[in-house]
Amino acid sequence: MNDREVGSADSYAQAGVSQSDADLSVSLLVAALAKINVGRPSRQVDLSGHYAAVMKLDETTGIALSTDGVGTKLKVAEELGRYDTVGIDCIAMNVNDIICVGAEPIALLDYLAVEKADPEQCGQIGVGLARGAELAGIEIPGGELAQLGDLINGFDIAGACFGTVALDSVIDGSAVSPGDVVIGLPSSGIHSNGYTLARKALGGNDAVSFDDDRLGRPLGEILLEPTEIYVKAVMDLLRSDAQVNGLAHITSGGLDNLLRLKSEVTYEIDDPLEPQPIFGLIQDRAGVPEDEMYEVFNMGCGFCCVVPPESEGAALAVLQGHYPGARRIGSVSAGPAEVRRV
């Protein structure tokens, strides 16, 4: 993601992801990068903290940039020996960020780091990348395969995504105002965030087997369910008559990701989407408070669209054509910048 995303909350820290260390690391990185001097005026559009960066190509056109990976969901793929879905996750985590600024994703370059090249594994990963690219309507014109046996144990995959947007159509969330409606789009499950906590909750001495079907499907299948790709739904929304004031990819941090939109308002979530059963299983086994679950996971809502009330009907007509479960989950009110579940 453009703004360097970090984990959160007590249970997450106990699982090995330190919020305080991550925050300090990000601040030092940002401080160093702020000193870059290329000897000319910056081409950056001021979107600090948003989902994607936008650079000015000329007076009318911008290029949107984002980079992200799949995270420790890859450990589940390794344990199951199944790699044909994680490429979809890599595409999704990138294109879902690009569309948040109103840009249309065009292409992605992948970076695959492996301990040792395994043709079968790489072929499966390629299958997922190709499927994800088709779902997002993008091309993959190139990438990199690096064998790093001295550095890593296993593999990692990440991508860098590129899109285009008219500079006068960039959506940064500054238009969000009291009275606006928040529409939630269903997630497909955990997506690609919170797996460090999820794996700890489901593992241990009394680990839940990947073959366990108490949730109606084998647990391994549920954990590898690919991240939903929202490109086509959001592109159709942007081409419709509905006015769109803000777009938010709900990842680590949950609905608090709405605060990345550039408007000092309060988001009141009074009718959240129903979380999938996998979240309840994680919560019960790890004893995680509900508030913390909403800080770490998407809890059934993978993307939010903020529209004025007069556009609610038109927006829902478009979005429900792709996701019948899409609906209003809350509204915007005057107040401090916060997300409040009411």
Question: Could you please describe the fold and organization of this structure?
Answer:
With 342 residues, the chain is α+β, with helices and mostly antiparallel strands. The protein folds into two domains: 42-169, 60s Ribosomal Protein L30, Chain: A; 181-341, PurM-like C-terminal domain (Phosphoribosyl-aminoimidazole Synthetase, Chain A, domain 2). Helix content is 32%, strand content 23%. It has eleven helices and eleven strands. It has a six-stranded mixed sheet with strand order 7-9-6-10-8-11. It has a five-stranded mixed sheet with strand order 1-2-5-3-4. The radius of gyration is 20 Å and the shape is globular.
Number of helices: 11
Distance between the termini: 29 Å
Q: Which ranges are low-confidence, i.e. pLDDT below 50, for 5 or more consecutive residues?
A: 1-8
Strand percentage lies at 15-25%
Q: Give the tally of β-strands.
A: 11
Mean pLDDT: 94
CATH superfamily of the largest domain, please?
Answer: PurM-like C-terminal domain
Instruction: Name the shape in a single word.
Output: globular
- Structural class of the helices, strands and pairings? alpha+beta
Output the radius of gyration. 20 Å
- Briefly note the CATH topology name of the largest domain: Phosphoribosyl-aminoimidazole Synthetase, Chain A, domain 2
